[in-house]
Fold this protein.
Amino acid sequence: MKFFVDTADITAIRDLKELGMVEGATTNPSLILKSGRDVFDVTKELCETVPGPVSIQVMAIDAKAMIEEGLKLAKIAPNIAINVPMTWEGLTACRAFASEGQMVNVTFCFTVNQALLAAKAGATFVSPFIAQLEDESMDGMQLIKNIRTVYENYDMKTEILAASIRSVNHISECARNGADVVTAPPEVIKAMVQHPLTDEQLGQSMSDWEKTGQQIA
Ligand code: E4P
């Protein structure tokens, strides 16, 4: 499963990249706002920092304007993936981008039917939002399972880019249920390494080693 980092914080991405934990990045208007930077500048630096796709959202509502915005964004770098909303206008723009070989991510996906439409529109990625479904007392992980089943049934090539990831359990469950990609905040990815028993065992081994009075020299 590929790890995309859900952030516009270049430093946080560099830390993870050094460990080989970054295959892409996703941004959204909130993350661009948080960065305090010009969208073109920060997206360009993200594309230079990340080895794979960098997803950047168009903000127009109609397909024609989405395509115009997307073409401007696509000029930033070859690893740009244009983020379009799950609307008929967004799917229209998706089809236009896909027909030109431009990577496109259809976002704001909350149902299997929406994921089916994204695949039929030629989306490179579809982004089902897990935590936002759970916020509404719905089963976000069941959506991942169901999209995976449907895509397998018809050999659909669109990649499931699981988004709205807020816990380490989301990441492991996405892996268990066949998401192609998770996009997670850097701190959630880093938290995957933690377990109290790991800390306990490390402490115990260090304590016993100290008692041997030896050194590995
Ligand atoms: C992708 O970038 C999505 O906008 C992001 O994963 C949403 O996460 P949130 O539901 O925690 O805001």
In short: The chain has a mean pLDDT of 97. The radius of gyration is 20 Å. Residues 196-212 form the longest helix (17 residues). The domain at 2-212 is CATH 3.20.20.70 (TIM Barrel).
